[in-house]
Structure formats: C-alpha cells, structure tokens
Write a structure and sequence with these properties.
Distance between the termini: 54 Å
Strand content: 5-15%
Number of domains: 1
Structural class: mainly alpha
Shape: globular
Order of helices and strands: EEEHHHHEEHH
Strand order of the largest sheet: 1-2-3
Number of helices: 6
Helix content: 40-55%
CATH superfamily: Winged helix-like DNA-binding domain superfamily/Winged helix DNA-binding domain
Largest sheet: 3 strands, antiparallel
Length: about 180
C-alpha cells in the first residue's frame, strides 16, 4: 500500500489511495503525540494518586494553593484546567474534609480565597512524592541536556500558541461582544 504524506499547517497530511481519504499521520503529528503523552501522564498520575484518596484535579488544586495561597475559585479553576463550577464543588469537598479553609464571608467582592490547612499540606506532601516519581519515570532514558531541552521546547511551544491566540488574524477580525 502506498501512502503519500506532506507537511501542512495541520501537521503531516497523508493520502492513502486505497482509502481515498486525506488524514493526519498520527505517528508524526505533534499535536497527536502531545495529546497521547498528556493522556499517558494523566493516567499514570491518577494511578499513584488514587491510593492517597486523590485525583489529578485535587492534586493540582492543592499544589496551586501551596505555591500561591489565597487564590480565588476562578484562579484555581484556570490553573487546574477545570470549570469554575467544578472547582467550586472540589473546594467545598476539600473544605469539608479539612484540607483547605476559606473565610465564611468575602472581605472584598465575592472572592473567598482558599488556603491549605496543615492536614491538606501533609496530604499534598505525600502526593507530591508520588507525582514526582511518575515524572522521573517519564524522563528515564533522557540525559540531563535532553530533559532541559524538552522543557525549553515545550515552554517555547506554549508561548508560541498563546502569542498566536493573543494576536488577531488580519483575515479574521476579532468579534467583540456587545458591551465588551
């Protein structure tokens, strides 16, 4: 079977005469490989966090609060890549379990800044050890230079994608909502 591939803006687009379809070559599609790596990482993290009574979202929330105490629900949701509603449900559960604390009333506006309790910090420490073991395993087989290069390259990709989203496309003017 003959398959012809070309690099395009969408990745490697392949034509398979037997199937008469165009498609992305998944083996060389950067986006697909990044998603596959992300899925594998998340599954491995879920496996080590489950025995600790956690999942990736719960761990992310605790880690964010340890590094930036007092974040709002919205800030935590953005940092953990979940909706505000999901984060609100999680924060209520963490509060009931004694892992975080929030004031009963907002000092300013509607923001109820969350903070880790000593119990939450202890649970986070155990989870961090488990998650770090997954990250170390993921990098096994790479030299220190390759690990540094991988981090640098990933940061560069993220920056490029965010910069591209911030720049309006001259062919597609930004549509503004009324009053916005």
């Amino acid at each position: 079977m003959f398959v012809s591939c070309q690099l395009s803006d969408m990745g490697n687009v392949c034509q398979n005469p037997d199937m008469r379809q165009d498609g992305v070559d998944l083996e060389t599609s950067l986006g697909y490989l990044l998603k596959e790596a992300s899925s594998a990482l998340r599954a491995a993290m879920e496996d080590v966090l489950r025995p600790l009574g956690m999942n990736v979202t719960r761990y992310s929330c605790l880690e964010l609060l340890a590094q930036r105490p007092g974040l709002s629900n919205s800030e935590l949701a953005r940092g953990a890549f979940v909706t505000r509603q999901s984060m609100n449900v999680l924060l209520q559960a963490l509060e009931q379990e004694g892992w975080v604390t929030r004031p009963a009333e907002a000092a300013v506006g509607k923001v109820l800044p969350a903070r880790l309790t000593p119990r939450g910090r202890r649970n986070l420490e155990k989870a961090t050890v488990a998650v770090r073991s997954v990250e170390v395993g993921m990098l096994r087989g790479m030299t220190e230079t390759e690990q540094s290069d991988a981090l640098r390259i990933l940061r560069s990709m993220i920056r490029s994608l965010r910069d591209d989203r911030a720049q309006p496309d001259p062919g597609h003017p930004v549509q503004r909502r009324p009053g916005g």
